[in-house]
Amino acid sequence: MIGGLSLVWLLTVFAVAAAVAVAASVRATALADIIADRTRLGEAMVGGLLLGGATSLAGVVVSVSAASGGDASFAVSNAVGGIAAQTLFLAFADTLHKNANLEHAAAEPANLFQAVMLLILLSLPIAAIAGPDIAYFGVHPVSIIMFLVYLYGVHLSSQVSDQPMWRPVETHETRHDEPEDATEAQKSARRPAMIFVALVAVMGLSGWIISQVGATFIARYGLSSSLVGALMTAVITSLPELVTTLVAVRRGALQLAVGGIIGGNTFDTLFLVASDVAYRDGSIFEAATQNDLYWLATGMLMTAILLGGLILRQRNGPGRIGIESVLIMAVYACAVGVEIAGLQG
């Protein structure tokens, strides 16, 4: 049905689906902060696992839909393009936090560990793409390894959060993860959790609509799958992460903001696992293109820069952003330039 719409209606449906996903994410961010306080799991853990996974749902729907339709490049580029876009959003959020560099103020061991885990998970698809074509029942062994690494990494992240073996140096700009209301932790998390699940379903439906519009653009107008995936659907489905990050920063939930991006990116690597299962023409890694590999490398580079910023904890004056944010913006701009240049070539 969506494939038969005119260009104007396609853009309208695309915009409405994106707006619904963003609106749901705004409410989800506030609920995630409440859930973090009431369950005492902490902002970094809830941001990295609960909020990060929820806001990534629209993106995973896009990748799985593309893979099941046989477009491997669309599925892969949407996944890894979203990781790059979301890391860029954290650099944007740094401009809103005026007291100090965001990565300095949101010092949290769990975020550091998840960034390392993200680098590991991004390196595995590169190994699969560069290695021999191996698939059992159409699924590459790396997909199973990635899933197991993710599960084990979540377990270790919980340990790092609950029983950290080291803590960052305290400064005047360090923001502590504490409930805003002392009585908040005494309340039940059941009702906000149920509303949160309903919002997740809405974001998932929005993702499916966006995937159908993206596939129509590829088929009707002959656009590159990697271009549509990395710069169109990936950015649009990542808008909830942008909104949740900005809202979290404005609320002062800095660990939630940083953890939501890093945790969301970590969850996004599972897009590739789900897409490999949905892709029935062999391993999706074997079908990936050089452009997809390029965006994987871009995601790794941007994550490494972010991790360096979290460790360095540069102290800037009010209104200034960290050097890592500047570098992240520059790397993403270069990646977009290369993608567009390749299209013109």
Structural topology:
Layout: H1 7-39, H2 43-55, H3 57-68, H4 72-94, H5 102-105, H6 109-130, H7 141-162, H8 190-221, H9 225-251, H10 254-278, H11 284-287, H12 290-312, H13 323-344
Helix pairs in contact: 1-2, 1-8, 1-9, 2-10, 3-4, 3-8, 3-10, 4-9, 4-10, 4-12, 4-13, 6-7, 6-10, 6-12, 7-10, 8-9, 9-10, 12-13
Please, could you describe this protein's structure?
This protein is mainly alpha-helical. It has 13 helices and no strands. Helix 4 runs parallel beside helix 9. The longest helix has 33 residues, at 7-39. It is globular and about 55 Å long.
Instruction: Give the terminus-to-terminus CA distance.
Output: 34 Å
| CATH homologous superfamily classification | NCX, central ion-binding region
State the shape: globular
Question: How large is the count of helical segments?
Answer: 13
